[in-house]
Structures are given as C-alpha cells and as structure tokens.
Amino acid sequence: MTIPNFEAINVGDEIPSFTTEPVSRLTLALYATGSGDHHPLHLDQDYVRSKGMKDVFAHGMLGMAYLGRLLTQWVPQEAIRSFGVRFTAITWVGESMVCTGKVVEKLEQNGEKCVRLELTCANEQGEAKHKADAVVALA
C-alpha cells in the first residue's frame, strides 16, 4: 500500500468511501464471537422486545471497526497516530453503513507531516451512527 503524499492532499479532500452490506443477525453473531461481547441487546430478540425495543442492534464497536477499515484502506495501520469515535445513534439490523472521511487539517506533529480527518459512519439515509476523528502520518 502506498501512503498518500502530504503535498498532494488538501483540506477538504475526501478519502475513498465504502458501503457495507446490510448488518445482519449473522454479522452480529460473528462480531459477538470475535469480540467476546455476547450482550443480549445484540443477539436476543425476545430480550430486546421485553425491554421495549423493536429489534436487536449492532455493537457500537462494530461501527468503530468499520471506520477503522475505512482508515486502513487509505493508509497502513502503522500510519495512524490517533483515532477517536463517538457513538451517536443505534445501528439497526438491515441497515447498510456508508463510511466516509475528509481532510480537515494539515499539520506537523512530532516531526511528521500529518492530516486530521473527520470520519462518519452513517446509514444510507444519511443518519450518522458514529462520528470520528483521526490523525494519520503521510509521506
């Protein structure tokens, strides 16, 4: 993977986006197995209905993983200097997630040329489910 060139990047540039397949019950089961998070809110439809919810929903960290994938499809993991995520809404079964990012600042940090990114994981209707910021070092 080639690291993007700092000089060629401008504030306002967007990084390559992607859209996930719809979140399915299988996605949630596989994520629960991999993460060790087997909370019934994400897996047990009877449990969530007893709590007044319509259906199970995705783990918040699944959306964070999608945003991590967005970053690592653009730069190698070792170029990531910081990555912080806020969970802003529930991701429901059946929703496809659209992951996008844009450059909001160019800076030098610890002697490295870096960019600060704003990242969003939203459903196809544009409702943000996760908002994030990241700093990555560029060549």
Total strands: the figure is 5
Instruction: Say what the CATH topology is.
Output: Thiol Ester Dehydrase, Chain A
Q: Tell me about the biggest sheet?
A: 5 strands, antiparallel
Proportion of beta-strand residues? 35-45%
Distance between the termini: 12 Å
H/E series, N to C? EHHHEEEE
Q: Compute the number of structural domains.
A: 1
- Name the CATH superfamily classification: Hotdog Thioesterase
Give the overall form. elongated
Judged by helices, strands and strand pairing, the structural class is: alpha+beta
What is the percent of helical residues? 10-25%
Query: How many distinct helices?
Result: 3
Write out the strand line-up for the largest beta sheet, numbering strands in chain order. 1-3-4-5-2
Radius of gyration: 17 Å
Mean pLDDT: 97
Low-pLDDT sequence parts: none
Structure characteristics:
single chain, five-stranded antiparallel sheet, 139 residues, 3 helices, alpha+beta, Thiol Ester Dehydrase, Chain A
What does this structure look like?
The chain has about 140 residues and is α+β, with helices and mostly antiparallel strands. The protein has one domain (about 5-135): Roll (Thiol Ester Dehydrase, Chain A), CATH 3.10.129.10. Helices cover about 20% and strands about 35% of the residues. It has helices at about 25-35, 45-50, 60-70; strands at about 15-20, 80-85, 95-110, 110-125, 130-135. The chain has a five-stranded antiparallel sheet, with helices on one face. A hairpin with a 2-residue loop joins strand 3 (about 95-110) and strand 4. The longest helix is centred in the middle third of the chain and has 13 residues, at about 60-70. The termini are close together. This is (3R)-hydroxyacyl-ACP dehydratase subunit HadB.
